[in-house]
Amino acid sequence: MEQTKENKMGTMPVNKLLISMSLPMMISMLVQALYNVVDSIFVSRINENALTAVSLAFPIQTLMIAVAGGTCVGINAVLSKALGEKQQRKANDTAVNGVILMGISYVLFLLVGLFGTRPFYLSQTRDTQIVQYGVEYLSIVCICSIGLFAQFTFERLLQSTGRTFYIMITQGTGAVINIILDPIFIFGLFGIPRMGVAGAAVATVTGQVIAGSIALWINFKKNDDIQLRFKGIHLEKEIVGQIYKIGIPSMIMQAIGSVMTYGMNLILISFTSTATAVFGVYFKLQSFVFMPVFGLNNGLVPILAYNYGAGRKDRFVKAMKCGIMYAVSIMFVGVVIFQTIPHVLLGFFEASDEMLKIGVPALRIICISFLPAGFGIVCGTTFQALGNAVYSMFVSMARQLVVLLPAAYLLSLLGDVNYVWWAFPIAEVMSLTMTVIFLIRINRRVIRYIDTVE
Q1: Domain ranges of the chain
Q2: How far apart are CA 258 and CA 262, in angstroms?
Q3: Backbone phi and psi for residue 162, each to the nearest 5 degrees, phi listed first
Q4: d(CA 193, CA 136)
């Protein structure tokens, strides 16, 4: 039966719609950022090697999120576009196929957790304590990643149909559980055995499993725009192809971040493990700036995809402009904070004098790249919503692999780790140039021809 009622993404005033859909996502992702930071703050209380071990795990965690997030970008865009085109059956089938694909993705990382964590750490360091901490932490995160994949999938189904308020509930619940369990499991409170670094991983996956379960329940009980029926389910080649046509470029784009982080860790650890710890702390701290922008994007994607499918150019363009304005504003606040109080931020992680010496200039230099990054992130989302996610992939590849890593390596040859941080703003200037070129191109070829609906 085809959908007949008009979704709010086609009727509500654009600015109000973007705020109503994005604000819950932004709040929930800020909570996510908080629990990521709290995780590292508690781990830093063990010792600096524990903090370094968790930092070195970041490439695999980024890769996991890349696979889940990239697949969900495809699910989101295909499902929202189907709703905009009033194709109810296709929307339902897209949701079910997305769930199957996420199950397959989990199996891949289960194998990584069982067989790949020790070789991964040994490729970066021979410090036995760092390797021991890292294997304990990353094995648990990968083997129990079913919660992460479930959470991503079922939250994005809610997002695709405009129910972002519920995502705030699921992510907030998972994050709060993680924050509460972190000190209990890490330090062994209330009769629980002291687990150390492994406790941080157990707290993380417990929060993810609970959040994913809640999101699944909400989809069955509250999401009447799609129907999840798993009887006789099977993968449909056409739908899977459409999901991955949009999702794979996004997946690659995020996975490139994993390669970049791995490469940067190798460059920085050649100076000192403290430099690697600083890099890990930076990523935790910058999540407070980037996560709200990603939350904004998560609210923006279904709006863009829906109105593209419905042929409403005016609403599409206005949503894109509002997204850019809000993203750059958030990034500006981030620049101000990183420039003015970097020593305070690092102090949360029990920063030694050496860590402050490296970390303060690092935060001040890297944050220069925030403003152009905000513009680029929203433009990349626009490319994805239009089915041209390959543009985003090209920009990301050029920024992180073609420019950032080579620049960081060349700057490291000068013998001072502080020069390495300049690779970030250098790469972002190149990224901004490419983004503007692609935006002009896609406007001429696609956006200007979206039929306006009166």
Answers
A1: 11-449
A2: 6
A3: 85, 10
A4: 15
Class of residue 435 by CB neighbours under 10 A (exposed 0-12, middle 13-18, buried 19+): buried
Asked if 378 and 327 touch (Cβ cutoff 8 Å), the reply is: yes
3-state class (DSSP) for residue 332: helix
**Beta carbons of 364 and 342 less than 8 angstroms apart:** yes
> Could you tell me which residues come within 8 angstroms of residue 217 by beta carbon, excluding any fewer than 6 positions away?
none
Say how many residues make up the chain: 454
Angle in degrees, 0-180, between the axes of helices 237-269 and 405-412, rounded to the nearest 10: 10
Q: Give the model confidence (pLDDT) of 59-106 as tens digits.
A: 898 889 889 988 888 887 788 777 777 777 777 777 888 888 898 999
Q: Is the pTM of this model over 0.90?
A: no
Residue recorded with tokens 């990521």: 36
Q: What would the two tokens of residue 319 be? A: 């949503």
**311 — alpha (psi -120 to 50), left (phi > 0) or beta?**
left
CB atoms within 10 A of CB 336: 12
Q: Map 398-423 to HEC letters.
A: HHHHHHHHHHHHHHHCCCCHHHHCCH
